[in-house]
Amino acid sequence: MTQLSERPLTVPNLVRRPGDDELVRAPLVAARRPGQWFGVIVVLVLLAMLGHTLIVNERFQWGVVADYFTDDSILRGLGLTIWLTIAVLAVGYALGIVLAAMRLSHNKLLSSIAFAYVWLFRSVPPLVQLLFWYELASLYPQLSIGVPFGPEFASFDTARLFGGVFAAFVALSLDIAAFAAEIVRGGLLSVDRGQTEAAQSMGLGRLRIFGRIVLPQAMPSIIPASGNMLIGLLKATSIVSVIAVQDLLYSAELIYQQNYLIIPLLLVATLWYIILTTLLSIGQHYVERHYARGRRGGRGRTPLRRTFRNNLPLLGSAWSRINANGAKS
Questions:
Q1: Run of H or E residues at 146
Q2: DSSP characters for 51-106?
Q3: Can you tell me the distance from the alpha carbon of 173 to that of 89, in angstroms, rounded to the nearest whole number?
Q4: How crowded is the C-beta side of 74, counted as CA atoms within 13 Å?
Q5: What percent of the chain has pLDDT over 90?
Q6: Apex CA 280: angle with CA 275 and CA 285, to 5°?
Q7: pTM, whole model, 2 decimals?
Q8: Nearest-CA neighbor of 274 among 235, 236, 326?
Q9: Could you tell me the CA-to-CA distances from 24 to 18, 19, 31 in Å, in that order?
Q10: 182 or 321, which is more confident?
Q11: Cβ atoms of residues 65 and 252 within 8 Å
């Protein structure tokens, strides 16, 4: 087999021309994007129009909004909304983790039961589930605890047990559990199987493998979807107003049914929802950043900085130019 002869690499002589030094020292200039500037101008004009109509249009009645913003009835409804969101998320997610474990189980019966549960509750709208549990007394007037096909130990009046709040809690918890199961299952499947096999070869137990190896790697995939589900759940609690549960929205409805100030009271509820979802979004950002440490080589940007740098490219470009001019001076 013949060997290739080694030849020295030759570099052609570079021809220096007049003006090359100026080109080398010239600063880098970003490409001009007239479409981007036009888009920024259009957005600013629309924002100015929106701000103008919010201030000038007296029908918004911001004075009434301020008067009812911290009304006792509104705050009680807000408290019920927050409690219902936290309680449903805790119970629904606990049940969802169990369902995810059943879906990943090698037992065909458990896997089939979990699949059927997820399929059923993801197919039925939450409002239908809510009305079903609220009207359960028409199907089962009494619920009993005892031996199957044998004596009863205790019985309950279904109409009293499944009041508005409890029916909302049960319906939303069962609905959230189906979606949480898929979120957790998807996060666990995102972890390479080799991680578990390597830990098993070192003699680690299943619980330790799950808690120390699998779950920390699955959390970056679970947290974003869970945060979105939490925000969706907060807004979905407003459907309980159809069964006269006095949450934030229904409290506003009770007030404007008396004074007919519909728009101001709806604005009160809207502002509270915006405040709560904003706080949850900020919390979600920091939780995501905590579990994503080491993945992108940095702690990441804060929500405010990310908003200005990513969503306002004009401001980001201007900031870069200011820094470049400062470095030159």
A1: strand 142-146
A2: HHHHHH-GGG-HHHHHHHTT-HHHHHHHHHHHHHHHHHHHHHHHHHHHHHHHHTSS
A3: 7
A4: 20
A5: 38
A6: 130
A7: 0.74
A8: 235
A9: 12, 9, 18
A10: 182
A11: no
3-state secondary structure of 154: strand
pLDDT value of position 312 = 46
The total number of residues shown for the chain amounts to: 329
- Percentages of the chain per state (helix, strand, coil), in multiples of 5: 75, 5, 25
Phi-psi region of 297 (alpha: psi -120 to 50; beta: other; left: phi over 0): left
- What angle do helix axes 126-134 and 164-189 make, rounded to 10 degrees? 140
Closest alpha carbon to 272 in 31, 85, 119:
85
Place of tokens 């919010």: 54
pLDDT at residue 6 in the model = 54
Stronger pLDDT, 148 or 36, i.e. the higher one:
36
Instruction: Reduce the DSSP state of residue 156 to 3 states and report it.
Output: strand
C-alpha closest to that of 248 among 17, 78, 14, 21: 78
**Phi and psi angles of residue 151, each rounded to the nearest 5 degrees, phi first:** -70, 155
Return the structure tokens found at 193. 């199987």
Average pLDDT over residues 80-100: 93
C-alpha distances (whole Å) from 304 to each of 224, 281, 311 are: 18, 12, 10
Query: Which DSSP helix (H) or strand (E) runs through 285?
Result: helix 262-291
The 8-class DSSP code of residue 21 comes to H
If residue 157 lies in a helix (H) or strand (E), which one and from where to where?
A: strand 152-157
User: Using the 8-state DSSP alphabet, how is residue 8 labeled?
Assistant: -
**3-class SS at 244?**
coil
- List beta partners, residue 157: 142
Cα–Cα nearest to 32, from 319, 317, 325, 326: 317
**What amino acid is encoded at 95 in this protein?**
L
Provide φ and ψ at 139, rounded to 5°.
-95, -45
